[in-house]
Amino acid sequence: MTNEVSRKDDKMEVEYKVNGQNIKLTGNMVQNFLTNGNSKITPQETMMFLSLCKYQKLNPFINEAYIIKYGSAPAQIIVSKEAFMKRAESNPDYDGIEAGCIAINEDDDEPRYTKGAFILPDETLVGGWAQVYRKDRKIPTRIEISLTEFQKTKNGRPSSTWASMPANMIRKTAMVNALREAFPQDLGNMYTEDDKQEASETPKNASQASQDNMTNINDLAKTKKEQIKVANDPKDVTPKAEDKKPVQKVQVRKPVDLNQLDKFEKEQKAFLKQAKEGGIDDDAETNGSEPVKEDPNQTELFDTK
User: Fold this and answer.
1) Would you say 102 and 112 are in contact if contact means Cβ atoms under 8 Å apart?
2) 194 phi and psi, to 5 degrees?
């Protein structure tokens, strides 16, 4: 496997000129001499570094560019501040740069914009600024950045360089950001070690993604097999909850009381007789007797439905 990777790296080769000097880079050179960190860069990362050096005319042998790789995190391609300055100065429209720090004092309402990286003892460093001038633009490109946003930390504390000279570091970072914005065609996609690079979310490796997909597929297949088994099993006739229909209650009628039926027929005949003879008084329905009390247990004689 190692020999295969070496052969692939040998095929990755670029040649170009920087300030009249011929530069030849191969994948093995990048892997063995120009990569910092504790992990090996991928062929894709190797090709990205070779392409950047060729098209941006960077000389990695004098540390104008190098690559850092830690663990499984994406590699970072680093360009030095000197390379930024050289590229800007080679542009015919470049007309100078100013840069400094931003500091505050408890007794002052407004922050102080310093020239250079000098901070007074009673001041607190809060950021940096830079302003790039171009001959073809009336308004200079100005950048102001916050110290808390760009300061590199480790275990919650500033790293050694940022702890020992924070003013110089934030000023340099402001200069790089201003130069990149002023000359996007020359300096686009180039970052220093102290830049705030926008790291894209790293997708899972191919084997892990494939394993996840296979797990999902296996789960779906298992569920489908269980459904088919239940559907084809003649012993399993238990209806599903969604297939159960509500049971309709059947009302059973009680037997008719014959004594009540005879009494009703007699009263009905008396009522019809009085109607024929000439009228019905208030007691006609009961023939002067008490009205028949309704038996709560008595049901209708006929189904009217």
Assistant:
1) yes
2) -95, 5
Residues 11 and 27 sit within 8 Å (Cβ to Cβ) = yes
- DSSP assignment letter at 125: E
For residue 270, which amino acid is it? A
State pLDDT tens for residues 73-105: 898 888 988 889 988 998 999 999 999 999 999
Q: Is the CA virtual torsion 237, 241, 245, 246 positive or negative?
A: positive
* Host H or E run for residue 264: helix 258-277
List, for residues 27-55, the tens digit of each pLDDT value. 999 988 888 888 899 999 999 999 989 98
d(CA 260, CA 292): 9
Query: Measured in Å, how far apart are the chain's first and last C-alpha atoms?
Result: 88
Q: Which amino acid type is present at position 151?
A: Q
The CA-based diameter of the chain, rounded to the nearest angstrom, is 141
**Three-class SS state of 228:** helix
pTM exceeding 0.70: no
Q: Could you please report the per-residue DSSP string of 3-46?
A: HHHHHHHHH-EEEEEETTEEEEEEHHHHHHHSEEESSPPPHHHH
Q: Please write the tens of the pLDDT for every residue from 172-198.
A: 999 999 999 999 988 877 888 777 544
Q: How far is CA 128 from CA 38, 77, 161, 180, in A?
A: 32, 24, 16, 16
CB 46 within 8 A of CB 40: no
